[in-house]
Design goal:
about 240 residues; elongated; alpha/beta; 2 domains
């Protein structure tokens, strides 16, 4: 199990990060952590049944699941493992976001770990939502306000079970360690390095200021290419 080691952030920083959508956070990270411009975010599309929900920001609780074959554990062992997993999810720095990799390979999403029950349980354990390349179901019965980004929507849970938890996972192109800070909304998700997280809101505001002169002229009925050139120059001079 490889939890991130830096001290947890003040809640005020998490609240500030949650005021921005995930694309804006990615833009800001290009300023404060340019070496991560091409890593650390989801690169494949995920289904979001609740696009109206606001962005979520929390610390990752990681796990792997599989559904195409039954667990090799006895029922008692499997029950104990699931309880240990829930204990892991419900402890440590919060708020938390569940990040679950389906390890069934090409058959990922064959069976849904997530539905009415697990969304309610994970919400009660202090999670804000789930990011998974597996499937989800029971959308009308889903826990209220619990965000979901998933590989697919399907009807059955098949043989789904927790294969492991607390280790590094890779979901939709994003590698996540237990304890990583995650920002997510209907667009996807991104890992925010803890050592630059407090700088991200100011960088997001800088991005907005740089975009303003371009957007103003683009939306102006009197738009001309010459005015766009001038706006681009003004934008580049904002620091």
């Amino acid at each position: 199990m490889t939890d991130s080691k830096l001290m947890p952030l003040p809640q005020s920083v998490l609240d500030a990060l949650a005021r921005y959508d995930t694309p804006t956070i990615c833009n800001a990270l290009e300023i404060v952590a340019p070496q991560r411009r091409a890593i650390g975010f989801t690169t494949r599309p995920l289904v979001c049944p609740f696009p109206q929900l606001p962005p979520i920001v929390g610390y990752a609780r990681t796990a792997t699941i599989r559904a195409t074959a039954a667990s090799s554990l006895t029922p008692a062992e499997q029950s104990a493992k699931r309880l240990a997993y829930y204990d892991y999810v419900g402890t440590g720095q919060g708020p938390r976001i569940s990040v679950i990799q389906d390890i069934d390979g090409p058959d990922a999403g064959y069976g849904a770990f997530w539905g009415e029950v697990n969304s309610a349980v994970h919400k009660a354990l202090g999670c804000l939502g789930v990011i998974t390349d597996g499937s989800i179901r029971d959308i009308p019965q889903w826990a209220e306000g619990f965000q979901a980004l998933a590989g697919s929507i399907g009807p059955s849970h098949a043989h789904v079970h927790v294969a492991g938890f607390g280790d590094d996972v890779r979901v939709a192109g994003m590698t996540v360690r237990s304890g990583d800070l995650i920002h997510a909304d209907s667009h996807g998700a991104v890992v925010i390095p803890l050592d630059v997280a407090a700088k991200v809101p100011d960088a997001a505001e800088l991005c907005a200021r740089r975009e303003t002169p371009i957007l103003d002229i683009a939306r102006d009925p009197a738009f001309t290419l010459e005015k766009l050139r001038a706006a681009l120059k003004r934008s580049s001079e904002i620091h």
